[in-house]
Amino acid sequence: MEFRALWDFENLYFSFRVFDTDIYIDEKDNSIDSIGNSDRVELFFRTNYSLNPYYCLEMDTSARLMDFEARPDKVFDFDWKWPKEDLRINASKDEISFTVKGIISIKSLKELNLIQNNKIEAGVFRAKFSKTESQNYEPTWISWVNPNTETPNFHIASSFGMFILME
Q1: 113: three-class secondary structure by DSSP
Q2: CB under 8 Å to 72, separation ≥6 — which residues?
Q3: For the segment 89-139, what is each residue's pLDDT rounded down to a tens digit?
């Protein structure tokens, strides 16, 4: 997986390129459950080390978005949404990979108190679903930062790294 990000004074631009052609998408509907059971990439942003709150963007290979506000101990508010005018996402596939790209307004990041001293505390993740011997799909979790946990858990402070906004 490649992740890249750039910024200017108006937007944060991001791109995930995932070298995988065996993509699983739960297409029963566009619900949170369906997106949550699909291959996807994820960006989390936190306001502080206590994760109170943090914001999650989970995007599948069809550019479906699961966005929510979260609090410690996996308390999720799925009614919360990133302002639509401040976030754009698209996805594409080629013969060796899929790409999910997006644009987030700097204005929205500032309004959510996610930029402090030209830094953004962020998590960059991937969920890969593979078919098991029992014909079920199970996830494998991939993180930019090793959270040093016995089992995968992205919803903890140690799974976040730092984006530094340099001029």
Answers
A1: coil
A2: 50, 51, 52
A3: 999 999 999 999 999 999 999 999 999 999 999 999 999 998 888 878 888
Whether the Cβ atoms of residue 40 and residue 58 lie closer than 8 Å to each other: yes
Torsion sign, CA atoms 107, 91, 145, 149: positive
Separation between Cα atoms, residue 96 and residue 68, nearest integer Å: 30
Q: Which H or E run includes 36? A: helix 32-36
Give the number of other Cβ atoms within 10 Å of residue 156's Cβ.
15
Strands of the sheet with 2-7, listed across from one edge: 2-7, 11-18, 98-105, 87-93
* CA distances to 45, 53, 75, 146, 150 from 89, in Å: 16, 23, 25, 26, 33
Q: For residue 44, give every residue at least 6 positions away whose Cβ sits within 8 Å of its Cβ, in sequence order, or none.
A: 54, 55, 56, 57, 70, 122, 123, 125, 154, 159, 160
Q: Structure pTM?
A: 0.92
